[in-house]
Specification:
Helices cover 64% and strands 0% of the residues. With 183 residues, the protein is mainly alpha-helical. The chain has 2 domains: 103 residues, no CATH class; 80 residues, no CATH class. Helix 1 packs parallel to helix 3. It starts with 6 loop residues before the first helix and ends in a 5-residue tail after the last helix. This is HEAT repeat domain-containing protein.
Length: 183
């Protein structure tokens, strides 16, 4: 018979996210715990080890709760690029969400657009471009940001990802074909 998990177990798994040989098992356990691990995951977003923060962002990407949103927003300015990239992903990616918590596009899109245009890390800009793309026809701030990245970003991969979502791009064409026609 298994005993119920305690908050301390979740906290230990969060700590284990920063231990290379324990990280995968910890991630699986936290993913399986879902919302039950929310408190420990939110605490992990303040951990001194960036690897732990990234792991918490990855799990919160699937099991986001409203109380984690301010902590994720705070991680958008973290000095470690992977923390910023995964924080924006956890906030903006709808595909990964398993629960009902989804931050509004109106709140997250402007932040992601700003990160696409100004973050020093190409990894963060790549993540932002890919996350903004599906909203290109729904939010007025997205197309100008993607067009600017497509023509001016210093990294070719960011330019390529942005090109998929601007007029003439393959994903833009598919999104436009699926969009409801205006009369």
């Amino acid at each position: 018979m298994s005993l119920p998990l305690e908050t301390q177990d979740y906290r230990q798994w969060v700590e284990d996210l920063g231990v290379k040989h324990r990280a995968k098992a910890a991630q699986r356990s936290l993913m399986a715990a879902g919302a039950l691990a929310s408190t420990a995951l939110r605490e992990g977003l303040h951990h001194p080890d960036p690897t732990v923060r990234v792991g918490c962002c990855v799990i919160l990407d699937h099991h986001l709760d409203t109380e984690a949103i301010p902590d994720l927003l705070a991680n958008l300015s973290h000095p470690h690029e992977k923390v910023r990239a995964w924080a924006i992903h956890a906030l903006a990616c709808d595909r990964c969400k398993e629960g009902t918590c989804r931050p509004g596009e109106g709140e997250i899109i402007p932040v992601a657009a700003q990160m696409l245009l100004s973050d020093e890390s190409r990894w963060v800009r790549q993540m932002a471009a890919g996350l903004l793309g599906p909203s290109v026809l729904r939010h007025p701030a997205v197309l100008p940001a993607l067009q600017h990245a497509h023509t001016h970003d210093p990294h070719p991969v960011v330019r390529k990802i942005a090109s998929w979502y601007v007029p003439g791009g393959p994903i833009y064409k598919r999104l436009a074909a699926m969009a409801p026609k205006r009369e």
